[in-house]
Amino acid sequence: MDTKGYEVIIGLEVHCELNTKSKIYCSCRSSFGAEVNSQCCPICMGMPGTLPTLNEKVVDYAVKMGYALGCTINPVSKQDRKNYFYPDLPKAYQISQFDIPLCENGHLDILVDGEEKRIGITRIHIEEDAGKLIHDESFAGTLVDFNRCGVPLIEIVSEPDLRSSAEAKAYLDTIRETVIYLGISDGKMQEGSIRCDINVSVHKPGEPFGTRVEMKNVNTFSGAVRAIEYEAARQIEVLENGGTISQETRRWDDLKNCNFLLRSKEDAQDYRYFPEPDLATILLDEEHLKKLKDSIPELPNKKTVRFMKELGLPEEDARQLVESIEKAAYFEEIVAAGQGKIVPKDAANWVLGSISRVINETGKSIAEIGIAAADLAELIGMLENKEIS
């Protein structure tokens, strides 16, 4: 997009649903697609006299993400009430974290056009999700499904280090791949497992950052790209016409490809945060933290770079392989079985071509297809040596 000499500043707040069997503060199931209002109880509905109990698996998952993003883990942390009124929030407050999050001061390395860029991570904290508003035109009103209330979330807040929609897309892709590799979320955007709020401002180089505008309701990565480009263009047009940008929250409409004013932006004091009185302080011992840190696998961004630098794969091939844990592992097994006698690029072509086609046509996994990596490596070697054609 033409920025007319302006620099675009982008920060992202990614909300990721964790794939625990139960919710964060009660024993209700947190599975997707259940009958409306069938997975809620007095605790997640905020009925008087109920007491929440923290799901410890949520803390473990958040800490694993913190280690994956190079964060400092706070061994002593707490939870806070964030107070606001909205129809999908039956308690009139959300249990979140304010001044002492579980994880802070990290980074994520992204890859854009073959170049690595480091994006700062301000914090990662745990919180409960709200319900889901269903706008029913036949009913001429809005209904609420409370199944999602209390579903565990981590919120990953970036520094304003992103400078384009392409960088934002790469960041979101890498976050999604990371939570899948860690096994803490299924990363299914179509089911709302990952959502993001986008903060955008523009300014002339050398001048102070402009006033930021937050966009809500961004539920797809392609939508995030369009939302950023639309909002940046809107702000530039306002400034070019002599106007000023107000700090506000706008709602993204993916169908109309535009946004509209939702409300003036609240500051932290508007939420009247205070420590959650019904939950104890979170204490993490060194032995448990070490166990979590040692469980972190090779992460997708590092694997992508390794495939490019060590195995000579083009960026697009490396990205496509790493998107699937199964395909990446199968590719590495083929290369290892070839014992340096086959070209890694040829192995990648087979995995991304014929093998992927069989997977798509049959709906089977690589393991179910039954083609051993060693056998495919031998076939590739014979083709390269022109022993067969």
Automatic annotation (TrEMBL):
One of its GO terms (molecular function) is carbon-nitrogen ligase activity, with glutamine as amido-N-donor. One of its GO terms (biological process) is translation. Keywords: ATP-binding, Ligase, Nucleotide-binding, Protein biosynthesis. It catalyses: L-glutamyl-tRNA(Gln) + L-glutamine + ATP + H2O = L-glutaminyl-tRNA(Gln) + L-glutamate + ADP + phosphate + H(+); L-aspartyl-tRNA(Asn) + L-glutamine + ATP + H2O = L-asparaginyl-tRNA(Asn) + L-glutamate + ADP + phosphate + 2 H(+). PANTHER family: GLUTAMYL-TRNA GLN AMIDOTRANSFERASE SUBUNIT B MITOCHONDRIAL AND PROKARYOTIC PET112-RELATED. Belongs to the GatB/GatE family. GatB subfamily. Allows the formation of correctly charged Asn-tRNA(Asn) or Gln-tRNA(Gln) through the transamidation of misacylated Asp-tRNA(Asn) or Glu-tRNA(Gln) in organisms which lack either or both of asparaginyl-tRNA or glutaminyl-tRNA synthetases. The reaction takes place in the presence of glutamine and ATP through an activated phospho-Asp-tRNA(Asn) or phospho-Glu-tRNA(Gln). Heterotrimer of A, B and C subunits. This is Asp-tRNA(Asn)/Glu-tRNA(Gln) amidotransferase subunit GatB.
